[in-house]
Amino acid sequence: MTRFALQFGQTQPGLTYLERLSAYGICPRGEVQIAIVRIGKRAPFEYDLPGGGIEADEDEAAALMREFQEETGLTIWPTRVIGRAGQFWINKGEPRNSLASFYEVELSADDGAPSEPDHGLVWITPSEALLKVRHEAHGWAILHWMRSRRAGT
Questions:
Q1: Which long-range contacts does 64-69 make (Cβ < 8 Å, 24+ apart)?
Q2: Neighbours of 18 (CB within 10 A)
Q3: How far, in Å, CA of 24 to CA of 53, rounded?
Q4: Taking residues 61-89, what's their average pLDDT?
Q5: 97-134: per-residue pLDDT in tens?
Q6: Domain ranges in the chain?
Q7: CATH 3.90.79.10 for the 7-151 domain, yes or no
Q8: pTM of the model
Q9: Cis peptide bond N-terminal to 117, omega within 30
């Protein structure tokens, strides 16, 4: 089993976790808000950074741009890698190890709508996002991004 230097979540004995390469992005709007995805048709909702799995014919940037468009309707461009981290979790009954690359992205256009019916775009402060995202790895990426912006790197 591959592990990134940072690994979040707990495994359960007896389960085999399928590794899945993925890419997620932090899209700031000004200095106040970032885009996150609200998942579900009714409350209680789950929240993630926009992004997801990398298909066999894609690189990280292509997957991230496609996933952003599908989940939020936004057109983005990846500008820098924030970091990489793994996340053990169970997705619809299937054990996963999401091996994720996290990017800061630049908004190119916001004139679309999500094509995934149970996904919606929400603009909130990074601090609010830290409390809402369901995966520890996403919270780590938001915090790491906030600290790097404060430091000017």
A1: 64/23, 64/24, 64/25, 64/103, 64/105, 67/23, 67/24, 68/25, 68/27, 68/105, 69/112, 69/115
A2: 12
A3: 9
A4: 96
A5: 999 999 999 999 887 888 888 999 999 999 999 999 99
A6: 7-151
A7: yes
A8: 0.93
A9: no
